[in-house]
Amino acid sequence: MSDPGNAQVDPRLLVREQGFAGYLGEFRRRVRGGELGPLPVIIGLIVIWIVFQSLNDRFLSPQNLSNLSVDIVATGLISVGIVFVLLLGEIDLSAGAVSGACAAVLAVLSVNQGWNAPAAIAAAVAAGALMGLLHGFFFAEIGVPSFVVTLAGMLAWTGFQLWVLGPNGTINLPDGLVSSLTDTYFAYVAAAYGLAALATAVFLAVSLAGNARRRAAGVPSRTVGDIVFRTAVLAVVAFGAAYVLNLYRGLPLALLIFVAVVVVTDFVQRRTKYGRSIFAVGGNIEAARRAGINVAFIRMTVFAVSGGFAALGGIFAASRISSASQATGQSNVLMMAIAAAVIGGTSLFGGRGSTYSALLGMLVIQSIASGMALQGVSNSVQFMVTGAVLLAAVVIDSVSRRSQKASGRA
Q1: pTM summary value
Q2: Rg of the chain taking only CA atoms, in angstroms
Q3: Which residues lie below 8 Å from residue 253, measured CB to CB, with a gap of 6+?
Q4: CB under 8 Å to 410, separation ≥6 — which residues?
Q5: How far apart are CA 328 and CA 98, in angstroms?
Q6: Nearest to 258 by CA among 356, 122, 340
């Protein structure tokens, strides 16, 4: 029998006990191995903000940043669903059409059929999930490639959207719950600061509780200094955002919902059996199958999740303009949702990423759009710049995967 005292421990687990020096060494190791995480997009976002602020001092004004924080929500929610699909190494080309079709369903039920807003919203989200589940069935059970089945879905649901809206093509939404999703701001200063304090306190409590569990299990844990540093960084970001938002109209409800969705879905992906199964299937489908994971179930439900978030994004898009029309979910919505996920750090090759990618990626894309709009730059140039950023993100992803293979970590 082996001596427990001589048991080998992964050196990476000891980083937490080595303090900041250990994390610095771990950071260097990750960079050399191609594990860049969100670092490139964060650096890119900072550069974008510096450049546009130097060109126009209104870019970082409270009003522009507040508007930007609401503008990212609709497409960002669609991108959250896209992240789930990309983690499988697949693609969903129907998300934009599903969002438009479900916005049309919401408008018809709430305006033409007289349904109350909560019921109409629930029905629209359920419709999106069912559309996604249908795509997942043909993909997982029949074997139709995801590209083909979702391309067919894009065409079919676009036609369904036009049929539901009828000859007028537009249904205006009355003032109420739906319109309030993007029109509501918590003007009380205490609301934004209170939320920042709550987020900081919860993060600190969870970190300390996790450390206690690790110590009880005899597993290396974070140092107190590390926890304090991480909490301080979160506090600076949270209270800084609260300060800026309070200078304009306060905390937007839409942003609050979006951030809550990102946090909850990230928890599901990283801390639940279902979420880890998604990573397993996306990383190596055969190994996942041999580990006892129901691959068909994971695939079907992931497309259902994508459809549900596409519907939610369509609802927020309709809320933003107080109507559902033939243009909802069309144009460049799908491409921007996919681009946001990839730019934010989710791999196109599957098995790597998080829903924070949707938040970071949308911040990059909307920052470019907002900055160029302030400069009077045409949409054509905006698309070219966004395309270049997307290509750069994919190149970084490809290079990092190559580095990981070279270092034996892929």
Answers
A1: 0.89
A2: 22
A3: 180, 181, 182, 184, 185, 186
A4: 401, 404
A5: 10
A6: 356
In the chain, the amino acid numbered 65 is L
How confident is the model over 264-321, as pLDDT tens digits? 999 999 989 999 999 999 988 999 999 999 999 999 999 999 999 999 999 999 999 9
Asked whether the beta carbons of 164 and 110 are under 8 A apart, the reply is no
CB 41 within 8 A of CB 364: yes
**Spatial separation of the C-alpha atoms in residues 400 and 410, rounded to whole Å:** 10
From the list 120, 73, 149, the residue with the least C-alpha distance to 309 is 73
Over residues 129-147, mean pLDDT: 95
Domain 36-187+249-406: give its CATH architecture: Orthogonal Bundle (1.10)
Tokens standing for 268? 């599901």
DSSP assignment, residue 409? -
CA dihedral 395, 397, 401, 402 (to 10 degrees): 10
- Segment 102-126 shows an average pLDDT of 94
* Distance, CA of 115 to CA of 112 (rounded, Å): 8
Q: Give the type of residue at 9.
A: V
